[in-house]
């Protein structure tokens, strides 16, 4: 995360609130958008991605983690590239994936901390962590770049 405090910080989010967050984010995505997801195993990165994808899909989509395939492409408008970097050991391996190749696609990157020097300057970071009460999640969102700061402010208003 950047040195600034995130504008959006939610504590004790339940599943319905995560679903609403995903639907809200999906309304403001634009071609070339980059969403970087951070969080431990099981915190809800793929769940949030599922809500985003299904908000943009004409038919229900079973979104699963692309841990083994590394990238899943969803036929939404705009196209969503769901990337999971968990199994990669070196940022150089990511270069071979041609991540961010499609300038019109939306990229949702799980385990984005593995991007290292490939982290885009402009992006929306979403950090999901366990709350003290394991049934809930804490969520922090921070936009980097003008478009993402605007997106961040709109998301905050709609939640």
From TrEMBL:
Q: Care to name a GO molecular-function term for this sequence?
A: metal ion binding
GO cellular component terms given for this protein: cytoplasm
Keyword terms, alphabetized: ATP-binding, Cytoplasm, Magnesium, Metal-binding, Nucleotide-binding, tRNA processing
Do the record's keywords include Ribonucleoprotein?
A: no
According to its UniProt record, where is this protein located? Cytoplasm
In the record, biological process GO terms are: tRNA threonylcarbamoyladenosine modification
**What domain of life does the native source organism fall in?**
Bacteria
Recorded hits in NCBIfam families, A to Z, give: T6A_YjeE (TIGR00150)
Question: Which family does the entry's similarity section mention?
Answer: Belongs to the TsaE family.
What's the name of the protein?
A: tRNA threonylcarbamoyladenosine biosynthesis protein TsaE
Q: Which organism is it from?
A: Petrotoga mobilis (strain DSM 10674 / SJ95)
